[in-house]
Structures are given as structure tokens and as C-alpha cells.
Amino acid sequence: MEISHTEENYLKAIFKISERRNKAASTNAIAKEMSTSAASVTDMVKRLSDKDLIHYERYKGATLTNKGQRIATHLIRKHRLWEVFLVDKLSFSWDEVHEIAEQLEHIKSPKLVERLDAHLGLPKFDPHGDPIPDADGNFAQRSQVLLNEMKPGEKGAIVGVNDHTSGFLQYLDRMQLILGTQVEILECFEYDESVRVRIGADREQLLTKKVSQHLFVQKEIG
User: Fold this and answer.
1) Which candidate, 200, 210, 142, places its Cα nearest to that of 176?
2) What is the pLDDT of residues 73-94, one digit of tens each?
3) Which family is it part of (predicted)?
4) Pairing of strands 54-57, 182-188
5) Angle 137-25-44 (CA atoms, 0-180°, nearest 5)?
């Protein structure tokens, strides 16, 4: 069965929405994710349903079938592996790679993907800290919390972001809040939900809620 690039992108969008919300992806949510109209989504949903790639219930939304899940997961696997390759091997910055990986993820060759994975050393996470599914579609698990959910005195390392926009990633670079950076919560302000943190050994910084709610931290134990 032939699947177009656009159909693949819709399956990936439905996967991501369902993962974030832990429920079916509504037409409006898909339209927002794909930056398109609800009418276009309705047409595509019918096409994907006819191909047995999604289940769709009116007023509830779309969920992936097993077949659709495999396609979406494999697409995500390729995307994130290409991001690792672009950053680690070609020295792209983490804010540059998403759009390029969007193009490369549609390459069909399974042999290329598996050789790419092996060449990169079987990475478990991409440059943004997102888990890379293995060849069987299994995602690596990691204990992590959002920085704005931490309490004063808690420490940890930044391990991921849930905002991949170039502006946000460039801001993190300027603030030296890259993956692996050690942070400690010093104070939480109820008024605006900002937090004062220690970054590394000796630098302090006030972070807004807009920033702290998009940073994943793996907390130190004990």
C-alpha cells in the first residue's frame, strides 16, 4: 500500500497529539498541529480510515490502528535519528535540524535507517532529549519532570525540551541551558510562577513560567 508523505505526516501528528493528551486526536487539534483547515483534516481522516490506518469516531476523534502506529513510530524513528546525525556528524545546531529532518524522514530504505542507527551508536535520545524508538517501535524510558514542577532544594540535569521552536532553542543556548546542564531550584514565586535557579556551580537566574514549563529535568535522588 502506497502512503504519501502528507499521509505520513498526518499519522505522525495524530500519534503526537494522542501521546500528549492520552486520548483521541480531535479534528481541531490535528488541524492546529498540521497548520491546515478543519475541512482538509476531515478529508484526510476519511482517506486514512479507508486505508485502515486510523479509527475515527465523530465527536471523539482519531486514533491509530496497529498499522498506522507502526508507520508513525517508524517515521519518528527516522526523524530523530537524522537529527542526531545532523548535530553529531555535520555540526548543525539543535535549532536548525527539525526542518531538514522533516524532509529526510520520508526516505524509505530500511537498510539505510538501520545502518544509520548503527553508525550513530544506537542512540536512545535525539538532540532535544526526545526518545528514539528502536526497530521494534519501543521507546526508551527515563524518569523526568518539568522544571516548573520542582521544589526549592531539588536538583537535577536538563534532559529535554517540549518546545522545539528555533526561538526557544536559541534562547536556551544564550542562557546556557543546554541538555546536561545542572540546575538547582532556589526559590519559587507564587505570584507569577517564576523560579530562581542555580545553573551549574555558581550562576543564578530567574526563569519565567514560559521557560520552566518547557524544560525536562532528571532529578537527583537523595
Assistant:
1) 200
2) 999 999 999 999 999 999 999 9
3) Belongs to the DtxR/MntR family.
4) unpaired
5) 90
Reading the block at residue 165, the C-alpha cell is 521552536
As given in the structure block, the three cell numbers for residue 208 are 519565567
Query: Is the Cα dihedral 85, 88, 92, 95 positive or negative?
Result: positive
Q: What are phi and psi for residue 203, nearest 5 degrees?
A: -100, 135
End-to-end Cα spacing for the chain = 53
Sign of CA dihedral 148, 151, 153, 159: negative
In this predicted structure, the answer to whether residue 56 has a pLDDT above a threshold of 70 is yes
Give Cα 206 to chain centroid, integer Å: 25
Tell which phi-psi region holds residue 52, choosing left (phi > 0), alpha (psi between -120 and 50) or beta: left
Whether residues 159 and 177 share a domain: the answer is yes
- Side-chain half-sphere of 71: how many Cα atoms within 13 Å? 25
Structural domain harbouring 24? 5-64
Provide the number of structural domains found in the chain.
3
Statement to judge: residues 13 and 47 lie in one domain: yes
Q: State pTM to two decimals.
A: 0.92
CATH of the domain at 23: 1.10.10.10
